[in-house]
């Protein structure tokens, strides 16, 4: 059985960026698991992934693998598929891990980490929040639009494995930090995503749309409800600090189309149920977050075939 230091599941925008930082951090053989065979072939032909960061392009020589054909076990597994695809990767995660492996889930919103914690035992499991803007232009070309921070932590108690992963990614230039209170950061990141993602998706705009007059008004309305939801889970969030974080995040990734705007532009499903839909579940479906969730679902229905008759 072949052993690898680090594998990525889901070679999209963030998966590609993780491969980039890992390679620069000294990991040379990085299996990246793809859902489509066309992606595997395109990346082989290109000799790896091309990552554009600033005005430079870097070729990252990964090992592209189809997710149905695992090639060995991994010490670190970074899962970067969309939240609604996580359930399809459970089997793969079982196959490519041993009891010594650490799985890091990097999905936005709430639900993905919980699902993996529920389904996978005898493994180290952590969650992380990503403050990086990235865009997949084609199957092998990804643009890094800014931000470089990832905060990670395990809800199953401290593990030094996260510090090992931190060393690799820090060496590669990623500002990867480890926290003992990952849920606090997940709530803060939920605030960032609950504002930036739907506003950019509805308007098909870059992240800087949030900095406009109406972007700021809606941000406040969304955040007021998030604070109520967080309180129900025992987290007291400060509104002004949260808004500052959100507006700073929009500035740092101003030229990025958020992951949800990219979904809408590419006629793909969105993660709205894991973000604003999750908040609406706590504060009522008639809330601002409830309305935003339904508007994004309406937009999805406008392009997802055969959905028009669904109730
Ligand atoms: N793009 C961004 O700027 C940011 C994204 N995020 C979050 O990171 C996560 C990933 O987002 P993106 O990279 O933008 O998504 P993406 O859609 O670009 O990439 C996800 C990839 O996973 C692949 N995939 C789906 N099912 C699979 C399977 N069973 N096996 C292997 N691969 C599979 C898809 O084909 C796709 O290429 C999301 O939860 C998103 O919210 C967080 C921060 C920033
Ligand atoms: C940080 C941000 C807002 C970057 O665009 C993001 O998390 C996303 O696009 O999903």
Automatic annotation (TrEMBL):
SUPFAM superfamilies: 6-phosphogluconate dehydrogenase C-terminal domain-like, NAD(P)-binding Rossmann-fold domains. Residues 7-154 form the Ketopantoate reductase N-terminal domain. InterPro entries: 6-PGluconate_DH-like_C_sf, 6PGD_dom2, ApbA, KPA_reductase, KPR-Related, KPR_N, NAD(P)-bd_dom_sf. One of its GO terms (molecular function) is 2-dehydropantoate 2-reductase activity. It is an enzyme of class 1 (oxidoreductase). Residues 181-285 form the Ketopantoate reductase C-terminal domain. The keyword Signal does not apply. Coiled coil: none annotated. Its EC number is 1.1.1.169. One of its GO terms (cellular component) is cytoplasm. Transmembrane segments: none annotated. It comes from the Archaea. One of its GO terms (biological process) is coenzyme A biosynthetic process. The keyword Oxidoreductase applies. Catalyzes the NADPH-dependent reduction of ketopantoate into pantoic acid. Belongs to the ketopantoate reductase family. NCBIfam families: apbA_panE. This is 2-dehydropantoate 2-reductase. The lineage of its organism: Archaea, Thermoproteota, Thermoprotei, Desulfurococcales, Desulfurococcaceae.
